[in-house]
Amino acid sequence: MLGAQLGIKGGVSAAGAHGGLGSRLAAHPSQPRQCRRRTQRRQVQAVAQQQGEGLGANIKRIAKQITSALPIIGLVSRLTATEGGIGNDAQAYPEFCRQVFDAAPLGFQIAVAELQNKYGKAAQRRYILCALWMARKGAGVIPGKLIVDSARRLRVSSDLEYEMERFAEALLEQNAKYTYMNQPKGSPAQQADVAVDAIARLVLNLKDGQPVPAEDAQLVADCVAGGFWDVPGMAEEVQRSVAERELRASAYSL
User: Which stretches of sequence are listed as region Disordered (predicted)?
Assistant: First the structure.
C-alpha cells in the first residue's frame, strides 16, 4: 500500500515535472526570433549612431567655418583653440605650448624650473609661454610696448585670457591693413628683443633698460631661445639681446 502510494506520488511528480517543462517550452516558442530581433535592433542603432556622429562632425565643421569668418571672434578663436586654430593663418597658443614641450631643448625646461624656484608664481610655465607666444607672433607686427606691457600686467593679474584677447585684437587691427600674403612679420632680432624684455618684466620685474642680473642672464637666454627653437640663429640673437638690454631703455616709451 505504501509502495503503491509512493509509486503514485512519484508518477505524479515525474508527470508534473515533465508537464511543467513541456509547458515552459510551449510558453516560449519565439525565443530564437526575439534574439534575432534584438540583434537587428542593435545593428540599426549602431548605424544610426554612426550617422548621427557624421552629422555632428559636419555641423561642427560648418560652425568653425562661420566662426573663422567673423572678425574679432574668428581670430581669437583661431589663436586660442585647443586643436590648433581654424585654418592655417594663426598658430594657437595651446598648439605653441605643445610644440615647445615636444621640441624645445632641455635647457629651456631647466631654465623655466630654476626661474620659477627663484621668482615664484610669475615664472610659471604658462605665463612664460604666453609672453613668448605673443613675442613670436606679434613682435615687429604690433608695437613691442603692447607685448611688454601685457607681460607686466600678467605678472600682477595672472589673467591669461584677458591678455590674449587684447593681443588678438591688436594683431587683427594691424593685419587688417594688409592682404594675407603681404602681412608683416617681425625679424629674429625684433622677436628676440621683445621676448627678452617681456620675460624680464614678467619674471624678474625689471624696468625698461634695466640690465638682467649676471646670475640670471643665461637662464633668461635659455628660456627665450626655447620659444624660438626652430628659428636659425635665434640663440645668438637672444644672447645679444640680453647683453644689450640697457640700450633699449627708451624703446617702449610713447
Answer: 20-42
What is the Rg, in whole angstroms, of the alpha carbon atoms belonging to the chain? 34
| pLDDT of the residue at 225 | 97
Low-confidence stretches of the chain (pLDDT < 50) are: 1-27, 44, 47-48, 51-55, 59-60, 62, 64-89
CA distances from 178 to 23, 65, 206 (A): 86, 21, 35
Give the residue carrying C-alpha cell 595651446.
94
Contact between 99 and 111 under an 8 Å Cβ cutoff? The reply is no
Grid coordinates in use for 215?
646670475
Alpha carbon separation from 177 to 92, 142, 171, 237 (Å, rounded): 22, 12, 10, 29
What per-residue confidence (pLDDT) applies to 22? 46
Helix ranges (DSSP H) in the chain: 2-27, 31-69, 71-80, 93-103, 106-119, 125-138, 144-157, 160-175, 188-202, 214-226, 234-243
Torsion of CA 171, 175, 180, 184, to 10 degrees: -90
Query: CA 185 from chain center: how many Å?
Result: 24
Q: What is the per-residue pLDDT for 170? A: 93
Spacing of C-alpha 142 from chain mean position:
24
In angstroms, what CA-CA distances link 164 with 106, 117, 150, 192, 248? Answer: 27, 26, 9, 20, 25
* 227/133 Cα distance (integer angstroms): 7
Q: Which residue has the cell 637666454?
A: 221
Q: What would the pLDDT profile of 145-178 be if each residue is shown by its tens digit?
A: 999 999 999 999 999 999 999 999 999 899 888 8
